[in-house]
Amino acid sequence: MCATSEKKSTAVFIDLPPYTPPQRGLLSWLPSSWVPYAELIRLSRPIGIVIIYSPYLFGTLFAAVVSPHHPTPGSLLKTNVILFAATIFLRGGAVAFNDLADREIDGRIARTRHRPLARKAISPRNAHLFVAIQAAIWLAILSQLSDRCVHYAIPLLGLVGIYPYSKRVTDFTPVVLGFTVAWGVFIGCAAMDIDPIDMATDDVAAKTYALCCFYLSCALWTNIYETIYAHQDIQDDERQGVRSMAIPLKGSVKSVLSLLAVSQVALLACSGWLIGAGLWYFVGASLGVAISLGTMIWKVNLREPSECWWWFSNGTWFVVGSIVVGILAEM
User: Fold this and answer.
1) Closest Cα partner for 128 from 99, 149, 108, 106?
2) What is the DSSP letter of 17?
3) How far is the C-alpha of 44 from the C-alpha of 50, rounded, in Å?
4) What is the pLDDT of residues 236-265, one digit of tens each?
5) Is 3 buried (19+), middle (13-18) or exposed (0-12) by CB count in 10 A?
6) How does the protein's chain sit in the membrane according to the entry (predicted)?
């Protein structure tokens, strides 16, 4: 970065406090050399793990409903414990790779200026090595379930690699992120010995269509919460020329989010109809999600960053809970 750019960045943050090591919480107990890596994987913000893990959970529950083998609660729980453990490393590697790609941009944004790579607390070389280790551990854990899980995991690595750079070519990066995060639905099915490709036969084609509807509904959900999350930085993004879906939709964001929410609920309902789900599935996975998303979109003040964060982190629990209750009602 040239000297003029450095002075400009410094001027932007002249009234903001400098970086200070964590004084409270888990990170304050870690050795100082570990803190940058803990910050890199967002250890203090575990909601990201829940968000990324949710499609895996949905996939396992969907597979349990459509499977002719009727898996026991114990086997379902064991599979999800392993998938959750794997998700910890997937999330760590994904956000670290994202920060690697965005380290120069993050240094110019108020909320992200203290991230480890932006403040040069971790070198790019060490960060690349760290990402590789996280990915290797993630694949190693998935391999404990089945080779099929690994086969479905490989394409996800490509999607994770594409996402950070999609910000350079389009404002609609949540679309890319949506297809990436939702891929966990397929891995969750594979973990329960239900191969999404093998389901695409005449006798179970409806189940394949149902799974695709579920996948697309998760992708739309990602677009909703990611757009709300992006409003935390909208002023900095506009000033720095950073691409974000929140910017071109400015003035009509809630209308677009409402349309996405209606589409998500419709896809969940279509998935239930295709598998012959009963009333309680639609009460939970359709009505429950509709109420959760409707309340979030109606109540959130997109001009207030703290509210965007609150609804991003807490709204997740309502949506996930509604879908889980709806699917469990079918088991």
Assistant:
1) 99
2) P
3) 13
4) 777 777 777 777 877 789 999 999 999 999
5) exposed
6) Multi-pass membrane protein
Rounded distance, CA 48 to CA 251, Å? 28
pLDDT of 330 over the 80 cut: yes
C-alpha distances in angstroms, 7 versus 1, 4, 10, 14?
10, 5, 5, 10
Q: Is the pLDDT of residue 275 over 50?
A: yes
* Domains of the chain, residue spans: 39-328
**Residue scoring higher pLDDT (197 or 151):** 151
- Which of left, alpha, beta for 169 (phi over 0: left; psi -120 to 50: alpha)? alpha
Residue 313: how many other CB atoms lie within 10 Å = 17
CATH C-level class of 39-328: mainly alpha
Contact 234, 246 (CB under 8 A): yes
| Alpha-carbon span 187 to 193, nearest angstrom | 10
pTM of the prediction? 0.90
Average pLDDT over residues 219-242: 85
Alpha-carbon span 58 to 176, nearest angstrom: 20
Using the structure block, give the residue that is written with the tokens 């414990």.
Answer: 81
Separation CA 69–CA 254 (nearest Å): 43
